[in-house]
Amino acid sequence: MMRLTTLACACILWASLPFGEGAAAEEKHLDADHDHSPQKTAEKAPQGGRAATAGSDGHELADSAHADEADHAKDGHDDHAGETPAEVHLSEEQAAALELRTEQLAPRVLDDVIQAPGEVRANAYATAQVAPRIAAQITQRHAMLGEHVEAGQPLVTLSSVEMSEAQGNLVIAEREWQRVRSLGRQVVADARYLEAQIGRQQAKARVIAFGMTENQVDDLLKAGAEKADGSFVLLAPRSGTVVTDAFVLGEVVDAGRMLFEITDESLRWVEARLAPSDVARVAAGDPVRIHADGGWLDGKVTQIHHQIDEGTRTQAVRIEVADTGHMLHPGVFVDVAISAGGGSPVLAMPETAVLRGPDGDWQVFVAADEPGAYKPVEVILVRSVAGLAVIEGLPVGTEVVVRGTFFLQSEIAKSGFDVHQH
Is 221 helix (H, G, I), strand (E, B) or coil? Predict the structure, then answer.
Protein backbone atom coordinates (compact mmCIF):
# COMPACT_ATOMS: atom_id res chain seq x y z
CA MET A 1 0.00 0.00 0.00
CA MET A 2 2.85 2.32 0.81
CA ARG A 3 4.51 1.60 -2.56
CA LEU A 4 1.30 2.33 -4.50
CA THR A 5 0.90 5.66 -2.76
CA THR A 6 4.50 6.61 -3.55
CA LEU A 7 4.13 5.64 -7.21
CA ALA A 8 0.95 7.70 -7.59
CA CYS A 9 2.64 10.75 -6.11
CA ALA A 10 5.57 10.39 -8.45
CA CYS A 11 3.27 10.27 -11.49
CA ILE A 12 1.42 13.41 -10.37
CA LEU A 13 4.73 15.21 -9.80
CA TRP A 14 6.12 14.18 -13.24
CA ALA A 15 2.98 15.36 -15.05
CA SER A 16 3.14 18.77 -13.37
CA LEU A 17 6.73 19.42 -14.60
CA PRO A 18 7.57 21.12 -17.93
CA PHE A 19 8.58 18.81 -20.81
CA GLY A 20 12.31 19.25 -20.42
CA GLU A 21 12.19 18.83 -16.64
CA GLY A 22 9.90 15.80 -17.01
CA ALA A 23 12.46 14.18 -19.24
CA ALA A 24 15.14 14.94 -16.72
CA ALA A 25 13.03 13.55 -13.91
CA GLU A 26 12.43 10.39 -15.88
CA GLU A 27 16.13 10.13 -16.55
CA LYS A 28 16.81 10.52 -12.80
CA HIS A 29 14.24 7.89 -12.02
CA LEU A 30 15.92 5.43 -14.35
CA ASP A 31 19.27 6.21 -12.78
CA ALA A 32 17.73 5.67 -9.39
CA ASP A 33 16.45 2.27 -10.51
CA HIS A 34 19.97 1.26 -11.51
CA ASP A 35 21.59 2.66 -8.37
CA HIS A 36 19.50 2.44 -5.18
CA SER A 37 22.14 3.85 -2.84
CA PRO A 38 20.83 6.80 -0.77
CA GLN A 39 24.02 8.72 -1.49
CA LYS A 40 23.56 8.58 -5.26
CA THR A 41 19.93 9.55 -4.93
CA ALA A 42 20.82 12.51 -2.80
CA GLU A 43 23.49 13.66 -5.23
CA LYS A 44 21.19 13.52 -8.29
CA ALA A 45 18.05 15.00 -6.74
CA PRO A 46 19.09 18.64 -6.61
CA GLN A 47 20.63 18.61 -10.10
CA GLY A 48 17.44 18.09 -12.14
CA GLY A 49 17.60 21.55 -13.73
CA ARG A 50 21.26 21.16 -14.70
CA ALA A 51 20.55 17.76 -16.23
CA ALA A 52 17.88 19.26 -18.45
CA THR A 53 20.25 22.04 -19.46
CA ALA A 54 22.97 19.53 -20.25
CA GLY A 55 20.53 17.55 -22.40
CA SER A 56 19.57 20.69 -24.27
CA ASP A 57 23.24 21.51 -24.84
CA GLY A 58 23.78 17.99 -26.26
CA HIS A 59 21.05 18.50 -28.84
CA GLU A 60 22.54 21.83 -29.84
CA LEU A 61 25.98 20.25 -30.31
CA ALA A 62 24.49 17.47 -32.45
CA ASP A 63 22.66 20.00 -34.61
CA SER A 64 25.90 21.96 -35.00
CA ALA A 65 27.75 18.82 -36.07
CA HIS A 66 25.12 18.03 -38.69
CA ALA A 67 25.32 21.56 -40.02
CA ASP A 68 29.11 21.30 -40.31
CA GLU A 69 28.80 18.06 -42.24
CA ALA A 70 26.30 19.62 -44.64
CA ASP A 71 28.59 22.62 -45.17
CA HIS A 72 31.51 20.27 -45.80
CA ALA A 73 29.52 18.26 -48.34
CA LYS A 74 28.47 21.43 -50.09
CA ASP A 75 32.04 22.72 -50.16
CA GLY A 76 33.23 19.36 -51.50
CA HIS A 77 30.71 19.47 -54.35
CA ASP A 78 31.74 23.00 -55.17
CA ASP A 79 35.36 21.87 -55.26
CA HIS A 80 34.49 19.11 -57.77
CA ALA A 81 32.50 21.54 -59.84
CA GLY A 82 35.46 23.86 -60.09
CA GLU A 83 38.00 21.18 -61.10
CA THR A 84 39.12 20.88 -64.72
CA PRO A 85 38.38 17.59 -66.52
CA ALA A 86 41.11 14.93 -66.44
CA GLU A 87 43.50 15.03 -69.38
CA VAL A 88 45.87 12.60 -71.05
CA HIS A 89 49.16 13.93 -72.36
CA LEU A 90 50.90 12.07 -75.20
CA SER A 91 54.15 12.75 -76.98
CA GLU A 92 54.33 12.71 -80.76
CA GLU A 93 56.02 9.31 -80.64
CA GLN A 94 53.28 7.86 -78.42
CA ALA A 95 50.51 9.23 -80.62
CA ALA A 96 52.20 7.78 -83.72
CA ALA A 97 52.67 4.37 -82.08
CA LEU A 98 48.98 4.31 -81.11
CA GLU A 99 47.96 5.48 -84.59
CA LEU A 100 45.86 8.08 -82.80
CA ARG A 101 43.80 10.06 -85.28
CA THR A 102 41.60 13.13 -84.92
CA GLU A 103 39.25 14.94 -87.23
CA GLN A 104 37.29 18.16 -87.08
CA LEU A 105 33.62 17.77 -86.33
CA ALA A 106 31.65 18.96 -89.33
CA PRO A 107 28.05 18.55 -90.50
CA ARG A 108 27.47 15.70 -92.91
CA VAL A 109 24.37 14.48 -94.66
CA LEU A 110 23.22 11.05 -93.53
CA ASP A 111 20.75 9.66 -96.03
CA ASP A 112 17.90 7.34 -95.27
CA VAL A 113 19.40 3.90 -94.84
CA ILE A 114 18.04 0.57 -96.05
CA GLN A 115 19.26 -2.28 -93.87
CA ALA A 116 19.54 -5.74 -95.42
CA PRO A 117 21.48 -8.99 -95.06
CA GLY A 118 24.17 -9.77 -97.60
CA GLU A 119 26.59 -12.49 -98.64
CA VAL A 120 30.16 -12.03 -99.83
CA ARG A 121 30.85 -13.36 -103.32
CA ALA A 122 34.03 -13.63 -105.37
CA ASN A 123 34.28 -10.90 -107.98
CA ALA A 124 33.66 -12.90 -111.15
CA TYR A 125 34.97 -10.01 -113.24
CA ALA A 126 38.30 -10.25 -111.39
CA THR A 127 38.54 -14.06 -111.24
CA ALA A 128 40.13 -16.54 -113.67
CA GLN A 129 40.26 -20.33 -113.82
CA VAL A 130 43.20 -22.33 -115.16
CA ALA A 131 42.49 -25.69 -116.82
CA PRO A 132 44.25 -27.84 -119.45
CA ARG A 133 42.70 -27.99 -122.88
CA ILE A 134 43.76 -31.61 -123.42
CA ALA A 135 44.12 -34.66 -121.19
CA ALA A 136 47.50 -34.54 -119.49
CA GLN A 137 49.50 -35.65 -116.48
CA ILE A 138 50.65 -33.17 -113.82
CA THR A 139 54.42 -33.37 -113.44
CA GLN A 140 55.34 -30.23 -111.47
CA ARG A 141 53.67 -27.58 -109.32
CA HIS A 142 54.90 -23.98 -109.36
CA ALA A 143 52.30 -22.20 -107.17
CA MET A 144 50.47 -23.05 -103.95
CA LEU A 145 47.15 -22.21 -102.32
CA GLY A 146 47.05 -18.68 -100.89
CA GLU A 147 50.05 -17.51 -102.88
CA HIS A 148 49.89 -14.23 -104.76
CA VAL A 149 50.86 -14.65 -108.40
CA GLU A 150 51.47 -12.22 -111.22
CA ALA A 151 50.11 -12.46 -114.74
CA GLY A 152 52.30 -14.77 -116.82
CA GLN A 153 53.81 -16.58 -113.81
CA PRO A 154 54.19 -20.39 -114.24
CA LEU A 155 51.61 -22.38 -112.30
CA VAL A 156 51.93 -26.05 -113.29
CA THR A 157 53.82 -28.24 -115.75
CA LEU A 158 51.96 -31.01 -117.61
CA SER A 159 52.89 -33.75 -120.05
CA SER A 160 50.71 -35.16 -122.82
CA VAL A 161 51.12 -37.65 -125.66
CA GLU A 162 48.76 -35.57 -127.76
CA MET A 163 50.88 -32.49 -127.15
CA SER A 164 54.05 -34.42 -128.05
CA GLU A 165 52.61 -35.33 -131.45
CA ALA A 166 51.53 -31.75 -132.07
CA GLN A 167 54.96 -30.42 -131.10
CA GLY A 168 56.70 -32.91 -133.41
CA ASN A 169 54.46 -31.95 -136.32
CA LEU A 170 55.23 -28.28 -135.68
CA VAL A 171 58.99 -28.87 -135.76
CA ILE A 172 58.67 -30.76 -139.06
CA ALA A 173 56.36 -28.14 -140.57
CA GLU A 174 58.68 -25.36 -139.46
CA ARG A 175 61.73 -26.96 -141.12
CA GLU A 176 59.82 -27.59 -144.34
CA TRP A 177 58.59 -24.03 -144.40
CA GLN A 178 62.10 -22.68 -143.84
CA ARG A 179 63.45 -24.88 -146.72
CA VAL A 180 60.72 -23.81 -149.15
CA ARG A 181 61.02 -20.15 -148.22
CA SER A 182 64.80 -20.23 -148.66
CA LEU A 183 64.37 -21.59 -152.22
CA GLY A 184 61.95 -18.81 -153.07
CA ARG A 185 59.01 -18.56 -155.42
CA GLN A 186 61.27 -18.59 -158.49
CA VAL A 187 62.25 -22.20 -157.79
CA VAL A 188 59.24 -23.61 -155.88
CA ALA A 189 55.80 -23.77 -157.41
CA ASP A 190 53.17 -21.52 -155.90
CA ALA A 191 51.05 -24.46 -154.72
CA ARG A 192 54.01 -26.03 -152.90
CA TYR A 193 55.02 -22.70 -151.39
CA LEU A 194 51.48 -22.09 -150.12
CA GLU A 195 51.16 -25.66 -148.82
CA ALA A 196 54.33 -25.36 -146.72
CA GLN A 197 53.27 -21.98 -145.36
CA ILE A 198 49.79 -23.16 -144.35
CA GLY A 199 51.13 -26.42 -142.89
CA ARG A 200 53.44 -24.47 -140.62
CA GLN A 201 50.65 -22.12 -139.50
CA GLN A 202 48.27 -25.02 -138.77
CA ALA A 203 50.88 -26.90 -136.75
CA LYS A 204 51.62 -23.79 -134.71
CA ALA A 205 47.92 -23.07 -134.14
CA ARG A 206 47.44 -26.63 -132.91
CA VAL A 207 50.05 -26.47 -130.14
CA ILE A 208 48.75 -23.06 -129.07
CA ALA A 209 45.22 -24.44 -128.95
CA PHE A 210 46.53 -27.25 -126.75
CA GLY A 211 47.89 -24.76 -124.21
CA MET A 212 51.29 -23.47 -125.29
CA THR A 213 52.01 -19.74 -125.52
CA GLU A 214 53.75 -17.84 -128.29
CA ASN A 215 56.94 -17.63 -126.27
CA GLN A 216 56.84 -21.35 -125.51
CA VAL A 217 56.38 -22.09 -129.21
CA ASP A 218 59.38 -19.90 -130.08
CA ASP A 219 61.51 -21.76 -127.51
CA LEU A 220 60.34 -25.08 -128.98
CA LEU A 221 61.29 -24.07 -132.51
CA LYS A 222 64.71 -22.87 -131.39
CA ALA A 223 65.41 -26.11 -129.51
CA GLY A 224 64.06 -28.33 -132.30
CA ALA A 225 63.11 -31.97 -131.96
CA GLU A 226 64.83 -32.31 -128.57
CA LYS A 227 62.15 -30.09 -126.99
CA ALA A 228 59.17 -31.92 -128.53
CA ASP A 229 58.63 -34.15 -125.48
CA GLY A 230 54.98 -33.28 -124.85
CA SER A 231 55.61 -31.09 -121.78
CA PHE A 232 54.07 -27.66 -121.46
CA VAL A 233 53.48 -25.07 -118.71
CA LEU A 234 50.23 -23.34 -117.81
CA LEU A 235 50.66 -19.68 -116.87
CA ALA A 236 48.63 -17.36 -114.66
CA PRO A 237 46.18 -15.44 -116.88
CA ARG A 238 45.96 -12.55 -114.38
CA SER A 239 47.43 -11.26 -111.13
CA GLY A 240 45.75 -12.34 -107.94
CA THR A 241 45.62 -14.87 -105.13
CA VAL A 242 45.40 -18.62 -105.67
CA VAL A 243 42.15 -19.63 -103.95
CA THR A 244 41.81 -23.14 -105.45
CA ASP A 245 44.40 -25.78 -106.41
CA ALA A 246 42.50 -29.07 -106.36
CA PHE A 247 45.07 -31.54 -107.75
CA VAL A 248 48.07 -33.67 -106.77
CA LEU A 249 51.33 -34.39 -108.54
CA GLY A 250 51.16 -37.32 -110.94
CA GLU A 251 47.42 -37.01 -111.41
CA VAL A 252 46.07 -37.44 -114.92
CA VAL A 253 43.43 -34.80 -115.56
CA ASP A 254 40.91 -34.48 -118.35
CA ALA A 255 40.52 -31.49 -120.60
CA GLY A 256 38.65 -28.68 -118.88
CA ARG A 257 39.44 -29.85 -115.35
CA MET A 258 40.01 -26.73 -113.22
CA LEU A 259 43.43 -26.82 -111.57
CA PHE A 260 43.72 -23.26 -110.26
CA GLU A 261 41.36 -20.41 -109.49
CA ILE A 262 42.91 -16.97 -109.17
CA THR A 263 41.04 -13.92 -107.94
CA ASP A 264 41.73 -10.34 -107.01
CA GLU A 265 40.84 -10.27 -103.31
CA SER A 266 41.14 -6.51 -103.08
CA LEU A 267 37.79 -6.07 -104.84
CA ARG A 268 34.81 -8.12 -103.60
CA TRP A 269 31.17 -8.48 -104.42
CA VAL A 270 28.43 -8.46 -101.81
CA GLU A 271 24.98 -9.60 -102.83
CA ALA A 272 22.22 -8.08 -100.73
CA ARG A 273 18.65 -9.39 -100.77
CA LEU A 274 15.98 -6.67 -100.60
CA ALA A 275 12.23 -6.50 -100.87
CA PRO A 276 11.15 -5.22 -104.29
CA SER A 277 9.66 -2.11 -102.65
CA ASP A 278 13.09 -1.24 -101.20
CA VAL A 279 14.90 -1.99 -104.46
CA ALA A 280 12.75 0.67 -106.11
CA ARG A 281 14.54 3.25 -103.90
CA VAL A 282 18.02 2.02 -104.87
CA ALA A 283 20.05 3.06 -107.90
CA ALA A 284 23.43 2.09 -109.30
CA GLY A 285 26.14 4.20 -107.70
CA ASP A 286 24.42 4.58 -104.31
CA PRO A 287 26.96 4.48 -101.45
CA VAL A 288 26.88 1.41 -99.21
CA ARG A 289 28.46 0.47 -95.90
CA ILE A 290 29.29 -3.16 -95.15
CA HIS A 291 29.66 -4.42 -91.56
CA ALA A 292 31.81 -7.52 -91.18
CA ASP A 293 34.39 -8.86 -88.74
CA GLY A 294 33.80 -5.99 -86.33
CA GLY A 295 34.53 -3.24 -88.86
CA TRP A 296 32.91 -1.19 -91.60
CA LEU A 297 33.85 -1.02 -95.29
CA ASP A 298 32.62 1.40 -97.92
CA GLY A 299 31.22 0.27 -101.25
CA LYS A 300 28.73 1.17 -103.95
CA VAL A 301 25.83 -0.41 -105.79
CA THR A 302 26.97 -1.64 -109.20
CA GLN A 303 24.10 -3.80 -110.48
CA ILE A 304 20.47 -4.56 -109.67
CA HIS A 305 19.14 -7.96 -110.64
CA HIS A 306 15.94 -7.99 -112.66
CA GLN A 307 14.67 -11.34 -111.41
CA ILE A 308 12.94 -12.03 -108.09
CA ASP A 309 13.87 -15.12 -106.11
CA GLU A 310 10.84 -17.40 -106.10
CA GLY A 311 11.62 -18.82 -102.66
CA THR A 312 12.33 -15.64 -100.71
CA ARG A 313 10.47 -13.15 -102.94
CA THR A 314 13.46 -10.84 -102.70
CA GLN A 315 15.54 -9.08 -105.31
CA ALA A 316 19.35 -9.13 -105.41
CA VAL A 317 21.48 -6.00 -105.42
CA ARG A 318 25.18 -6.38 -106.26
CA ILE A 319 27.61 -4.21 -104.34
CA GLU A 320 31.29 -3.70 -105.11
CA VAL A 321 33.55 -3.29 -102.07
CA ALA A 322 37.25 -2.46 -101.89
CA ASP A 323 38.78 -4.95 -99.42
CA THR A 324 42.49 -4.23 -99.26
CA GLY A 325 42.60 -5.53 -95.67
CA HIS A 326 41.08 -8.92 -96.68
CA MET A 327 38.22 -8.68 -94.17
CA LEU A 328 35.70 -10.27 -96.54
CA HIS A 329 35.70 -13.87 -97.72
CA PRO A 330 33.29 -15.57 -100.12
CA GLY A 331 30.38 -17.19 -98.32
CA VAL A 332 30.50 -14.91 -95.26
CA PHE A 333 27.23 -13.21 -94.26
CA VAL A 334 27.39 -9.47 -93.60
CA ASP A 335 25.12 -6.55 -92.73
CA VAL A 336 24.46 -4.06 -95.51
CA ALA A 337 23.41 -0.43 -95.12
CA ILE A 338 22.46 1.25 -98.42
CA SER A 339 22.11 5.04 -98.47
CA ALA A 340 18.91 5.85 -100.31
CA GLY A 341 18.99 9.67 -100.12
CA GLY A 342 16.66 12.07 -98.36
CA GLY A 343 18.91 12.83 -95.38
CA SER A 344 19.67 16.04 -93.51
CA PRO A 345 22.97 17.49 -92.14
CA VAL A 346 23.97 16.16 -88.71
CA LEU A 347 27.10 15.94 -86.58
CA ALA A 348 28.38 12.40 -86.95
CA MET A 349 31.57 10.48 -86.26
CA PRO A 350 32.65 6.82 -86.17
CA GLU A 351 30.90 4.79 -83.49
CA THR A 352 34.27 3.81 -82.02
CA ALA A 353 34.89 7.45 -81.06
CA VAL A 354 31.96 7.49 -78.60
CA LEU A 355 32.39 5.60 -75.32
CA ARG A 356 30.57 5.23 -72.02
CA GLY A 357 32.11 7.33 -69.27
CA PRO A 358 32.63 6.14 -65.67
CA ASP A 359 29.29 7.67 -64.67
CA GLY A 360 27.47 5.93 -67.54
CA ASP A 361 27.14 8.98 -69.80
CA TRP A 362 28.37 9.05 -73.39
CA GLN A 363 31.62 10.91 -73.98
CA VAL A 364 34.22 11.66 -76.63
CA PHE A 365 37.81 12.83 -76.38
CA VAL A 366 38.71 16.21 -77.78
CA ALA A 367 42.00 17.99 -78.22
CA ALA A 368 42.82 20.18 -75.23
CA ASP A 369 44.60 23.54 -75.28
CA GLU A 370 48.08 22.06 -74.87
CA PRO A 371 49.62 20.14 -77.79
CA GLY A 372 49.28 16.39 -77.28
CA ALA A 373 46.64 16.78 -74.54
CA TYR A 374 43.21 15.18 -74.79
CA LYS A 375 40.26 15.39 -72.43
CA PRO A 376 36.86 13.67 -72.20
CA VAL A 377 33.71 15.66 -72.92
CA GLU A 378 30.17 14.42 -72.45
CA VAL A 379 27.88 14.34 -75.47
CA ILE A 380 24.36 13.22 -76.29
CA LEU A 381 24.14 10.17 -78.53
CA VAL A 382 21.15 10.73 -80.79
CA ARG A 383 21.35 7.54 -82.86
CA SER A 384 23.72 5.18 -84.66
CA VAL A 385 23.58 4.75 -88.42
CA ALA A 386 25.76 2.27 -90.32
CA GLY A 387 28.75 2.58 -88.02
CA LEU A 388 28.36 6.33 -87.51
CA ALA A 389 27.23 7.96 -84.27
CA VAL A 390 25.05 11.06 -84.51
CA ILE A 391 25.79 13.30 -81.53
CA GLU A 392 24.87 16.62 -79.97
CA GLY A 393 26.65 18.80 -77.44
CA LEU A 394 29.80 19.88 -79.31
CA PRO A 395 30.33 22.89 -81.57
CA VAL A 396 31.24 22.50 -85.21
CA GLY A 397 35.00 22.43 -85.76
CA THR A 398 35.87 20.63 -82.51
CA GLU A 399 38.92 18.40 -82.92
CA VAL A 400 37.64 14.96 -81.93
CA VAL A 401 39.66 11.77 -81.47
CA VAL A 402 38.28 9.11 -83.82
CA ARG A 403 40.96 6.45 -83.30
CA GLY A 404 42.66 5.61 -80.02
CA THR A 405 39.83 6.60 -77.69
CA PHE A 406 39.90 3.30 -75.79
CA PHE A 407 43.54 3.85 -74.84
CA LEU A 408 42.85 7.39 -73.66
CA GLN A 409 39.94 6.20 -71.55
CA SER A 410 42.01 3.43 -69.99
CA GLU A 411 44.79 5.91 -69.13
CA ILE A 412 42.31 8.16 -67.33
CA ALA A 413 40.81 5.16 -65.52
CA LYS A 414 44.27 4.14 -64.29
CA SER A 415 44.87 7.64 -62.93
CA GLY A 416 41.85 7.21 -60.61
CA PHE A 417 40.05 10.41 -61.57
CA ASP A 418 36.72 11.34 -59.97
CA VAL A 419 33.60 10.42 -61.93
CA HIS A 420 32.23 13.88 -61.22
CA GLN A 421 34.84 15.46 -63.48
CA HIS A 422 32.72 16.05 -66.55
Answer: helix
